[in-house]
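User: I'm writing a tutorial on reading structure tokens. Could you give me a worked example: one chain, its sequence, then its tokens, then a sentence or two explaining what the tokens reveal?
Assistant: Sure. Here is the example chain.
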Amino acid sequence: MNSIAEHIADFLKEYPPFNHLTFQELSEIATSIRVVNLEKHKTLFQINDVLHDSFYVVASGVINLSVIADAEETLLNKCHEGDIFGLRPFFAKNNYMMTAKAREESIVYAIPIATFRPFVANNSEVLNFLLESFATNTPNPKDKENLRGKLISDNVYYSDQQSEMQYFQSLNYNNSPIKTTVSTAVKEIAQLMTETLMNNAIVCENTFPIGIVTDSDMRSKIATGRFPVTASVDQIMSSPVITVQENVSLAEAQLLMLKHNMTHLCVTQDGTNKSAVKGIISERDLVIAQASNPGVLIKEIKRSQTSKDLKQIRERLSDIIQNSIHKNIPLSHISNIASEINMAIIKRSVELSILDLGSPPARFAWLSIGSQGRKEQLLLTDQDSILIFEDVSPDKYRDVKDYFLKLGRKTTATLEKVGYELCPNGHMGSNMLWCKSLTDWTKQYNSWMNTPGENSNDLSSIFFDYEIAFGEQKIEESITTTVFKNAKNNTLFFDFLGNDALRKNSPLSFFKNFNVEEEGPNKNKFDIKTRALMPLIDGARLFVLNYDIKGINNTYLRFKQLAITDAKHAEIYLNCAEAFLILSKIRTLEGLKNDDSGQFINLNELSKIDKDKLKAALAPMKELEELIKSKFQLTQFS
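And here are its predicted structure tokens:
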């Protein structure tokens, strides 16, 4: 071994995952490593470049990894000595999704993937390092603080939670594969593959998979003349077949292909080669699956031109939510992703309205209120919104308001076509009551909060759960200032809100049975929204307003923050936070099953375990109710 290769091997052994390899293995790898010298600001690869045949390790200097979003370059990570990057060729076939550029004069080692692949396949520690890093998208899954060297994921996500969803995302696959037997002639299979436009066929024996034939086999073994077209298929098939269960995740499938150097996986009844074939997963299926990750969906939303485009994306989000719940990803993570995609759809709907109507005559803010304002809208429920435009001179007010009412109507109509039903109570920016100037909105909140009894018919608590979807951030901030200014020491307002929070019908009877609907289309069903979720939502809102906690709209996060702010009652808040997630999951599963809002639960369809789980999640509500009664003077509106 030459001295350069020896030096490289010495360097690599200090960093994961190379520290799991022997020095002899590292020496073998090092002989094929290419040393790349990069001048300051020199680009190694950039977005949409064709993938290289190597991945990279920083030997010295700093490499910046960045993406372009909304015409701006965003720095994702800085790679220092010992850091691995450029691993995309291991996991995907499409082009690079980020740019790697030298921050200063740097040296990197280019490690050929073909050389390194066998060591990944034969060393479980190396494979596990890649698997865990890919799954968690953290700098180092083993030791985040002390171990030098880290693996930089080459998948671009909007958050770590999205990385988890990408990892756990289930795959769609070809469930009608070509099946054949060992005695079938190659010519016959080739004709069938051509007619069906498929590039593979599974060889079976008694319905069990024993081999696979692909286009690659046809090229390397038939076209080269090694075997005649009359040969039986068992002479050219690859065997054994790598088998998986149908719920295999994207990342698991990628790493299995990597480990076994395969381009196809066979889906069987129980995941082994001793059960019937259900389908085939190809590398192309992995590329298609990557196109359904949340980051890609948001990019597609930004390019959408019609409500039809947005509707198709929202339907794909429903699939992601359902798969993620079945994979037991924490519901708080799923909510984060869903809310970002929902918000992107709302934003694009406003943009399309502006493109149709022309530039707005004044600055404005479109605020989502209610469940989307709390980032809790997992299902396609009704839309709630308000529109606030900046103050204009009296002579322009009418024309300006007319423009924004048209904008509101177009936007809500687009969202309705996407699948978000119109709010039955008219709480939308298309309603002239909820589309007005900042001064008028300030007066509205002042009236609601300082004389709540006089306006009880108008006051809806959802107006205190809002999130800007489009427009001027300072307008939203102005509303927030108004709300918290009015809330300070406002005994009357908290008296009203506290009583409103306790006014919901009890979920359980005196004998601990579920209180169900007594009449109507949902007779004998349990209203999980009104009886279980809303008391928790109302309670969390009441306390954050009282404790002057700004910027947290989500019910689960509100309870978590309250446990810190009011440590004396932390246990109650934490129990409520956990209960909210459990109840939300039950509602979401019900909604996905019935393709509705999931509000009404058919208790007869629940198992005893699920009924007990539902009943247990209702327990913290009593503690919360007692806390509200002891904290606030609930007198005038009782």
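What the tokens reveal: Residues 133-153, 155-165 have pLDDT under 50 and may be disordered. The first strand starts at residue 34 and ends at 38.
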